[in-house]
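Reopening: structure tokens for the magnesium ion complex, inputs below.
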Amino acid sequence: MQYDVILPAAGSGKRMAAGHNKLFLELRNKPILIHTLEVFQQDEACRGIWLAVKPDEKAYIQTLLEKYHITKVKAMPNGGEERQHSVVACVKQIEDGQIVLVHDAARPFITIPIIHELVEAAEKKGAAIAGVKAKDTMKVVENGKIKGTVDRSSLWMIQTPQAFDFTLLKKAEQQAETDNFLGTDEAMLVERLGQSVYIVESSYENVKITTKEDLIFGDAILSQRIG
Ligand code: CTP
Ligand code: MG
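Re-run output (same inputs, fresh job):
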């Protein structure tokens, strides 16, 4: 089993409001970006990392890679306006991918067993994404009024990694570009082709660090894992 991973890291972290890219914020004295990179650095099945970055952050990120001995980064293309564009910038640089994962750099708590389950599922079925079952009661609301209650048993909250046969991912990105279609994740682009995408049950710990509260969750997860 082998794979390449695309890590979009070119966001601005508006909801975190840290005044700079939230990926540089530290948990246990280590930048969030490095926590994420270390998972893939340590995974022997990972051949290479493709990191989309903001042009003016590239030099700083390079110093972080050296400081923390991250050696698997193959390229750091410039990210785009939207996350999808950042992912496309990486896809365009991969020459001979077989299974390619897309993973938010802002999800530092992903684990190697979940990654491997996704890679195996993508090898067999072409496309597999991480998700967890919805926990809360789900309702449709319009203008402040409840319209109805949705059956929760079929609802999943989708995360990354999302794992794809590389030919399929490229085709999906190309079609989206032709149609000027912007999706909220890569799976949505593959679904548009009429291709089936499968779920791998992930962990509630695989949070995306998005707002200030997530730093508290993140610190608690690390306390539980490493004391
Ligand atoms: N990302 C990216 N390029 C963009 C936007 C986002 O590479 N144009 C990356 C982010 O760096 C992050 C991941 O996509 O690792 C998920 O995005 P999100 O959590 O939304 O991060 P930000 O866009 O930075 O945050 P916000 O939406 O609050 O501004
Ligand atoms: Mg964003």
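Residues 8-16, 22-23, 52, 79-83, 86, 104-106, 208, 210 surround cytidine-5'-triphosphate (ligand 1) (CB under 6 Å). Helices lie at 32-42, 58-67, 83-91, 112-125, 166-179, 186-191, 212-226. Marking as resolved unless the reporter disagrees.
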